[in-house]
Amino acid sequence: MTLTTILIIILILILLGAIPAWPHSRGWGYGPSGIIGLILVVLLILVLMGRI
């Protein structure tokens, strides 16, 4: 597995975990989606710089 494949799998798992479908995660607000957005921005910058 390459680093890109691992990052995609981790990102998909984080996206599934951020969906407020379970009772324990309904009160989290925008925290998980904000973290996901930050991770996406960092990954996009790394891709554009040619590091990934």
**Helix and strand element order:** HH
Beta-strand share of residues: under 5%
Counting helices, strands and paired strands, the structural category is mainly alpha
Counted up, domains total: 1
User: What are the segments in which pLDDT stays under 50 over at least 5 consecutive residues?
Assistant: none
Task: Count helical runs.
Answer: 2
Largest sheet: none
Radius of gyration: 13 Å
Topology:
Blueprint: H1 3-18, H2 31-49
Structure description:
The chain is mainly alpha-helical. Helix 1 packs antiparallel against helix 2. The mean pLDDT is 75. Pfam families: DUF3309. InterPro entries: DUF3309.
Can you give me a brief rundown of this structure?
The chain is an all-alpha fold and 52 residues long.
Characteristics of this structure?
mainly alpha; 2 helices; 67% helix; single chain; 52 residues
